[in-house]
Amino acid sequence: MSEQVTLRRALGFWALVAYGIGDILGAGIYALVGKIAGISGMYAWASFAVAMGVAALTAVSYAELGRRFPRSGGEAYFCQRAFGWPALSLLIGWLVFSSGVVSLATVSRAFADYALANWTIASGPLHLVTIGLFLLLLTGINFWGIRESSRVNMVCTLVECSGLIIVLVVGVLFLLGRDLPALPEVAPVPGRLNGALLIQGAALAFFAFIGFEDMVNVSEEVQDARRNVPRAIMTALLVAGSVYVLVAWVATRVVAPAELATAGGPLLLVVQRGAPNFPAWIFVIIALFAVANTGLLNYVMGSRLLYGMACEGLLPRWLATLHPRRQTPYLAILIILVVALSLAITGTVQLLAGTTSFLLLIVFATVNLSLVAIKYGEAVQPKRTRTALAIPLIAAATSLGLMLALPAASILPGGVILLLGMLLIVARRCLPPGLPRKGAPPDSRDPQRGG
To answer: Are 76 and 276 in contact (CB under 8 A)?
Structure first.
């Protein structure tokens, strides 16, 4: 009898932390600081701090669920364990997968836009070629293996973090050479309190924290996953959030918030204002590394999620096929390549990014409710997983509130994807047996069980 091929446990704690930091930081910080400064003024840093607190609530739920069920399949598996309803698990898995693919398409489009715009090359066919080459490069890295993907992620994370360090160093040195500006009140809007503007800024800043949830989907490739996954989630969120707060504080004191709000590259403007002789091309390269890193991590997450769902019987078993040498889900990787390329060619950055946010906010609310259902059904909670029930309840309510605050332009395409997921459920009315029952003990595939 041939030995079953399984995913390779190649990621340690710090490798997983780097994976999470790279996914959270990504390209968002390079674009969102200016827009948030336009809302919250000099207190943009406070909006990031509030957003970090909101994200941390959901991260607590992910951390506990990751400790209880450390395996690929993530959110779909959590819902199955909580509610025992395969249709809901399939729908959530579909939404997570769709958000990852749409996000991959978003950064692919952004990579081509940014690269060609800064090199003053005309768009058109060359634009499409750039998107295709970018996705093929990420496909090769993802296929090669999780260890190789992790190494590329570490390099990209260091590069994009170096850009933020440059902003902080240049900004602080600039501020030390002159008096700090006064901290004016946030400009009031008729009929609203200043605090409302801070919350509006936090709602936008929250989307810059998306990425920590992807860490659960590589659990089966993490060493000592039950211990390392929850610790890595909280560590990555804390590090990324602290960087956001510091960068926002420096940026709004080097450049006026109103000027930042209209800048195409707000952090580049901060560096140019603080150090006029600093080479602009360095920031172009850093931004491209940041975008590429986000794309790679979304690609890894999507392919491992398809693998996990296929192993649970929620999707066709052939999607769980692993390459005999590389031990990677190569068929799932190829499926994502085709879908992401189609979306990147036909969509716009704004439309794709808004759709991603809508889908993930639905998922966040459902994951929090899954933890509530699991904890409510336990007579005695395990000592290592005693999270207050109020935390996932508040996190679920916050996620739903932010989802409803999105503009219709973001909700409509997200609703279409949600409807497609429901149609997928109808098409698979006869789900295969073998799914874990609600509250059932872990099966033999649980990586933490002995024997």
So the answer is: no
